[in-house]
Amino acid sequence: MGLITGNDPIASWWLAVVVVVVVTVVVAILLRAIIREAAAIEDGVAVVWANGQRVANNTIHIAALYKTHEFVEGILGRAGRIAGSAKAIEEHAEHCDSCPRCIWHKG
Fold first, then answer.
1. CA separation (Å) from 96 to 4, 10, 11?
2. For residue 15, what are the contacts with CB-CB under 8 A and spacing of at least 6?
3. pLDDT band per the 50, 70, 90 thresholds, residue 98
4. Euclidean distance between CA atoms 96 and 106, whole angstroms
5. In 4-30, which positions are buried (b, 16+ CB within 10 angstroms) versus exposed (e)?
6. For residues 33-37, average pLDDT
7. If you write DSSP's letter for every residue of 1-33 in order, what string do you get?
8. Which of 9, 30, 85, 104 is spaced 20 to 30 A from 71 at the CA atom?
9. 19 with 7: CB under 8 angstroms?
10. Rg (Cα) of the chain, in Å, rounded?
11. How far is CA 54 from CA 12, 28, 51, 72, 104, in A?
């Protein structure tokens, strides 16, 4: 009965020791669970981070693709004009008896 009423100091001391040990064990178990979950979260974050960097790397090139598209359109426009000029030269050469001298001596 002394343990319950607190009249026995040694029993109270042992009760305090047992409570501290139990609390310490419970805290250690909870901390271990927290550390395990934190490690799992960190692994997941590392995967998300790596994939995010890959996506960012790919999206950087989109602006370059727009610029490339502009260059290609310019090249196609010039190529069309060159093809037209080549066709005109070809048609002229088919009907001109003095070609290519007519190019050098206009008239």
1. 126, 127, 126
2. 3
3. confident
4. 13
5. eeeeeeeeeeeeeeeeeeeeeeeeeee
6. 97
7. -HHHHT--HHHHHHHHHHHHHHHHHHHHHHHHH
8. 85
9. no
10. 44
11. 62, 39, 5, 27, 60
The 10 Å CB-count burial string (b at 16+, else e) for 87-100 is eeeeeeeeeeeeee
- Burial of 79 by CB count in 10 Å (0-12 exposed, 13-18 middle, 19+ buried)? exposed
Separation CA 84–CA 80 (nearest Å): 6
Longest dimension (CA), the chain: 135
Whether the Cβ atoms of residue 12 and residue 6 lie closer than 8 Å to each other:
yes
* Residue 36 Cα distances to 22, 43, 47, 48, 50, angstroms: 21, 11, 17, 19, 21
Question: What's the CA gap between 89 and 7, in Å, rounded?
Answer: 121
Q: Distance between CA atoms of 54 and 2, rounded to whole angstroms?
A: 69
